[in-house]
Design brief:
The protein is mainly alpha-helical. It contains 14 helices and three strands. A hairpin with a 6-residue loop joins β2 and β3.
Amino acid sequence: MKIKLKCIFAAVCALAILSSCSAAADISTESKTSEQISAVSQQSTEKTDESHTSDKAVSEPEKEISENLSSAALPEESSKPESSSKSSEPKESISDTEESVQSEAERSADNGDDIIPSPGLSDELCAEHGLTVIKNPKGKTPRNIYFAEKNGEPTTFNLMREAIDYAIECSRSFEYFKWIMKNQGYVLNLNPKHRYWTIRSVNSKKAVRMYRLGEEYCNEAIRRRIYTNKDEHWRNSGKYEYELKQMKLFQPKRLFFRGSLKKVKRHTGIYATYLHYLYLMGKLPKWNQRRPLTPEMREAWRRLDRFSRQVTLVAHKNLNTLDDVQSFITKTDQDIREVTELRQKLYNKMRRCDNDERLSELKQSRDDCTTLLRQLRKEKRTAETIIEDEPKIKENIRIEMQAQNLARGIKPKTISKQRSYER
């Protein structure tokens, strides 16, 4: 019986040695060793069962020793494949995460989702290469309006700033400030109960909060600018009142003409409207550089090139009414289609042409068609802008004439109501 126990002990030691050696092997060898261990353990259990059946006189200490040895061997055997599986799982997870990170990086590189805008870095790059940098950006100002204000062009906000600065220099109180602004064509709302003061044109319904014009045009800044340096403001206010009196005392020159005005050539229609508009704007005649009174007319200076193109087209094509302009647009569309078809035919001939001289002639005629198309399309766009700007031009003329009459002390004519009484 002792010999059998020694054999079992030797078998358990051999199993422990095999398990320690299998830790360094691959996953396939570990599975094989686990199978071998399970087979050996079954054999050992069978031998112990046979020994128990053959010899029942086995001492209790020897049974405890054998059970302890078998329990000590089995956990080691079962722990090895688990440890091997755990060691293999992190490797697979690490490889999966690396692949997912690479795929996400490629996806983000394609879509540009992970690109974080850096305004400071972009401003530095623009400054290094001599490009413009927007300082203290506020809101979403269109690019053309931003650069127009930066260049000092008469935009809506620039005209408001100019009017406020001039009124502050000539005002000695808030009421005087509001009066000067109204003479310049603006209405202010300086209600102390309101959080923000507003400004709008006399002929506009949309008001603008004054703090949007800049830091020097908020409530506190305007109040501070009016109450500081009052001596200078008093002198400027006296000068302003003197200029207003001179404007009211102004009388136009009287000229005498010998002959009949019926034989004098007159301009009518759209051409006359544009000449009157440019005169009120202060661009005609060239020697008379007058300043319009209303902000709408001063803002129209920005589109002077557009108006000059329109006047040139009206004069060259003899367009007197809007119906003439519309018929000119339809005729131009027809000419554009004909020239486009002719140019396409020239392209087809150029593909089949083998003679160099003939090919050069076709190219020259093609270039002529392209030049004519460019001119026709430009004239069509100009004619479309005439129809678009005509109502605005008439409205600006009416506003400017009304402002001039008020500045000269001429009251607008009121139509008296004729009442009819019936018995």
